[in-house]
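FW: tagging you since you asked about this chain on Friday. Here's the raw sequence from the shared folder, copied in full. Didn't touch anything.
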Amino acid sequence: MTNKELDKCIIDFLDGDESSFDLIYHETKKSVYLSIYTIIKNQDTIEDLMQDTYMKAINALNYYKIGTNFKAWISRIARNNALNYIKRKNREEIIDAAERPDIYGSTSESYFLDFATRNLTEMEKDIIIYRVILDLKFKEIADVMDIPLGTIYWNYQNAIKKIKEEIQEWNSEISRKSSKLKSITSLMC
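HL: got it, structure written out here
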């Protein structure tokens, strides 16, 4: 769905067509999910924050400027919602990060994403997810994250370099283990 088509659904929703919300949700749920996932890993918490994000977006829909990028707008709401959740939790109790699986843990379905981004800063992870997975333009990422465009470019390049190094290191480790396995197997025969 193009941005114009999505804007049409928003206008229809604002005009009272509640069925348009289903189309809006279907078109934006991935970007909302990943915007929250970059900050929080617990599936139940993500689902709660997604629901809260859509409620906030509906209540603020009159402030959305038709003709801009709705996905970037709602992603920013989702990101801010997740960050506010973290702030609330940190105010309630101070706990070591290792004891916070709902925020810092990982899930099996996101293994590759976690692996590829494990050596990245939080900012670099966010930029990679917005650019590679959500396919946002660098300018849109800068708007969502409220960071200068040059900073986005620089962090993206650093992140790509780190990911390439991580994959090369992983490939080398696989080769070493494979060689060891072959030599052990040959000794056994």
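FW: The domain at 1-105 is CATH 1.10.1740.10 (Rna Polymerase Sigma Factor; Chain: A).
HL: agreed, and Residues 149-188 form the longest helix (40 residues).
FW: great, closing this out.
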